[in-house]
């Protein structure tokens, strides 16, 4: 049985910061990365929380992520910003550009932020929620190393290529939609392989192109696109926005997610829309009434509801974290680079 230790969110932040500093990260990257992973654990997203944080630590130590990265922000037009990530991470690149990005959207009605030369971004919804918390509608697109076959194919071409969307809602947290264009996330298959548990037969193909319930065989093959050709089409659109528009590496040409020391040069593309410039006053109130009707009269599930419940619970009671994960993070702290 897996042993757990309960940590407060402050404890997790402190643990992450200590490990990041031990891996050579500067203050910008330390604080930006730690905040993002605390948010993931707060929301109960265990597979992209501290267990995924270990991948980041490995990549910082190998140089695959530049621990001293200093992203550079450029304004290319009144509503267009470009960030060159210096081989670092999305979190710090986004943080550096964030205030200018929000101001541009409020001044012009709509703004776009392009980020390139960074690692895989983690939880994409984390970024759009921050946009929505400032009263704006947020969209985001991110590419990732190839691990998803095109519809009808068996060779990896797309990443899991997530997209995310967030909207301000009166008197409550923003509505956040965050999903990959693949049937499932890579971390879910990897976790199943570690636990030696079967996966649904529609999640992945083995290396011969056959559906498999064996997670280890799936890791040697490819993940399937969500909804068949529709998911593949969305993955293609995300790749064009996240890699094509940003000048980043296409998913099929990107290196391995964790192995080696070469920067991945992945990309993300963000859009922020000021609803007041289009719908006038009261947009957040209309969203509140809309969702109340959706949930109350039509029994619709509001995306992120369980995540918000976990956030409240973990803020009060802390998070039960796998002891082996804590031990692995502590080993990084005890053996600084």
Keywords, separated by commas or semicolons:
337 residues; alpha+beta; Hypothetical Oxidoreductase Yiak, Chain: A, domain 1; Ribosomal Protein S8, Chain: A, domain 1; 2 domains; two-stranded antiparallel sheet; 12 helices
How would you explain this protein's 3D organization?
The chain has 337 residues and is an alpha+beta fold. It folds into two domains: 1-68 and 304-337, Hypothetical Oxidoreductase Yiak, Chain: A, domain 1 (Orthogonal Bundle), CATH 1.10.1530.10; 73-182 and 225-303, Malate/L-lactate/L-sulpholactate dehydrogenase, NADPH binding domain (Ribosomal Protein S8, Chain: A, domain 1, 2-Layer Sandwich). The protein is 43% helix and 18% strand. The chain has twelve helices and eleven strands. It has helices spanning 9-22, 27-42, 50-62, 90-108, 125-132, 186-195, 215-220, 229-244, 276-279, 283-296, 305-317, 323-334; strands spanning 4-7, 72-77, 80-88, 110-118, 137-142, 163-167, 175-179, 204-205, 222-223, 266-273, 319-322. β6 (163-167) and β7 form a beta hairpin. α3 (50-62) runs parallel beside α12. The radius of gyration is 20 Å and the shape is globular.
Could you provide a short overview of the structure?
It is built from twelve helices and eleven strands.
Topology:
Layout: E1 4-7, H1 9-22, H2 27-42, H3 50-62, E2 72-77, E3 80-88, H4 90-108, E4 110-118, H5 125-132, E5 137-142, E6 163-167, E7 175-179, H6 186-195, E8 204-205, H7 215-220, E9 222-223, H8 229-244, E10 266-273, H9 276-279, H10 283-296, H11 305-317, E11 319-322, H12 323-334
Parallel strand pairs: 3-4
Antiparallel strand pairs: 1-11, 2-3, 4-10, 5-6, 5-10, 6-7, 8-9
Helix pairs in contact: 1-2, 1-12, 3-12
